[in-house]
Design brief:
Order of helices and strands: EHEHEHEHEEHHEEHEEHEEHEHHEHH
Protein name: Nucleoside-diphosphate-sugar epimerase
CATH architecture: 3-Layer(aba) Sandwich
Shape: globular
GO molecular function: aldehyde dehydrogenase (NAD+) activity
Radius of gyration: 20 Å
Largest sheet: 7 strands, parallel
InterPro entries: Epimerase_deHydtase, NAD(P)-bd_dom, NAD(P)-bd_dom_sf, NAD(P)-dependent_oxidoreduct
Pfam family, one: Epimerase
Number of helices: 13
Strand order of the largest sheet: 3-2-1-4-5-7-11
GO cellular component, one term: cytoplasm
Bound molecules: NADP nicotinamide-adenine-dinucleotide phosphate
Amino acid sequence: MAPKIFLTGGTGYIGGSILHALVTAHPEYDITVLLRKTPEAFTSTYPNVKIVQGDYDSAETLAERAKQADVVVHNGDSDHEPSLNALISGLLAKPKKSHLLHLSGTGIVSDWASPQHLGTLNPKVYSDVDDIAAIAALPDHALHRNTEKILFKTAAEHGDKLEIAVMCPPDIYGPGTGPGNTQSVFTRLFIADATTVAGNRVFYHGAGTNTRSWVHISDLTSLYLRVVEAAVADSPTFSGPGKYPGYYFAGTQEHAHIDVARTIGATLVKHGVIQDAEPVEVGLEEVDRMAKHPLFPKLGRYLYASNSRTRAVRAEKMFGYVGRAEGLLESIEGDVLAALGK
Ligand SMILES: NC(=O)c1ccc[n+]([C@@H]2O[C@H](COP(=O)([O-])OP(=O)(O)OC[C@H]3O[C@@H](n4cnc5c(N)ncnc54)[C@H](OP(=O)(O)O)[C@@H]3O)[C@@H](O)[C@H]2O)c1
């Protein structure tokens, strides 16, 4: 029988790209997606993908669909607890073992909450193998920690029945390939803040040497493919050691913020959006006025002033994962143009 996949967030940048990669590589999979609004060309582009109408608060639908699936690939909102709980309850209600991939993010290990390294390099680089115990014990204020706590607890209590992969990408770049949003968030927000709060200048905080990991969306989706295939095969490469879920960082490179700012600046000058490519220093007060988010007022600190350094050790060990796409700084022009609507 064809493996049954239930996927959420299929119109998103990440979830849509994963959907596209799965349909393309595995037309034999029986894929169902949860959609709250179906894009116009969806059924003509993906005629074999089944659609279930609903959103992340449709707990009964989520639980029922999870119960019918062999593998659930949950994307779209890394912090939404009710949808995650509903999916887990559906998966645990099945008589046989099943698999869940949950999209988290390396915001979880960012140092945004402490002033110590804002705008400067933090030497700490997290490994998803050697630091798994530390990641499992991160404080509650860590981004995505609310859902990761649920995942670590479920893996410890029900690991024999439900195997979990926590997919933890860093900042992502490159064009998405899904049926909805095809743009990542960083470049779009950075340009919006540069052309408003920072007065038509690209910017950095402190020394600008705060450093974050990055991955191209095509490398990330290739990792997702390997992990879904491992789930379908019920392979031991899928899940983590002992009581832990399989935990997958996905970064392929890292960059200091000032280098990213300078490269975006040069691209904006080239396309006549700003006049001066050289980054200007901004204080924390300005950073805190950037990237407004109703649930996370310090999003600006996280995006522009924090470090979030990770190594995808587990993916490399299990699947020989390496980045194949062009690097961020070489390819950022495409993202800049997309953010400008050009
Ligand atoms: N992009 C990055 O660089 C990055 C890196 C690491 C982690 N993350 C995390 O990954 C998650 C997804 O990011 P993304 O860039 O793919 O976001 P996105 O492009 O905005 O996609 C969000 C997806 O989730 C769906 N969705 C959101 N809330 C929903 C709800 N209540 N009910 C049903 N569907 C809902 C959206 O559906 P509609 O189309 O109907 O709105 C869309 O399909 C976020 O939580 C983000 O923090 C992102």
